[in-house]
Design a protein that fits this description.
Number of strands: 6
Radius of gyration: 23 Å
Largest sheet: 6 strands, antiparallel
Shape: elongated
Structural class: alpha+beta
Number of domains: 2
Strand order of the largest sheet: 1-2-3-4-5-6
């Protein structure tokens, strides 16, 4: 039978592995697909801040490389059924962690123990390519629709101008 110490050790190891996986994913996906809010190069470090909203029911904020010794922060929101842009201020964080060089020694941490978001983010990490394809497809369709609508509006405006010149009512 496992002792309390061994059980606690297992829980700590699992939490560290989870945090490492989620933080790495949040930093990578935010930089790859998100909006760059800040990018500056110092003498010995590069400080960047990226945000990505509405990626598989999650939104991310990654603030990395604050100093030459590290200094990273990751924030994660879980918001099924809500768009982050419209409700961002109302959505509680499920993870907010800051650390210098080792994530197992956070300088600040807020962690929601609800297993639902934890399971869902692991699914998102596994499905990230298909989620990205779905988002890209939706964006392409929206652009195509906007272009079609703009062309139709232009034709209607030209027709209305022609009708006015010809005094057609």
């Amino acid at each position: 039978m496992a002792t309390k110490r061994e059980n606690l050790g297992d829980k700590v190891a699992k939490r560290i592995a989870f945090l490492e996986k989620v933080a790495a994913f949040a930093c990578l996906i935010s930089a790859k697909r998100g909006e760059k809010l800040l990018y500056s190069e110092g003498s010995c470090h590069t400080h960047s801040i990226y945000e990505l909203h509405d990626f598989g029911d999650f939104s991310f904020h990654a603030d990395t490389g604050k100093t030459m010794f590290g200094g990273d922060q990751v924030k994660v929101w879980y918001h099924p059924l809500l768009k982050f842009d419209a409700q961002g201020a109302l959505i509680p964080l499920v993870l907010d962690i800051s650390w210098q060089s080792d994530i197992d020694k956070p300088t600040h941490m807020q962690f929601n123990d609800d297993p639902v978001w934890q399971k869902e983010i692991l699914k998102v990490i596994r499905r990230q390519k298909s989620i990205a394809r779905q988002i890209d497809q939706a964006v392409a369709e929206a652009k195509k629709k906007a272009a079609t609508d703009a062309a139709r509006n232009k034709r209607e405006q030209e027709l209305a101008e022609t009708a006015t010149r010809l005094q057609v009512r």
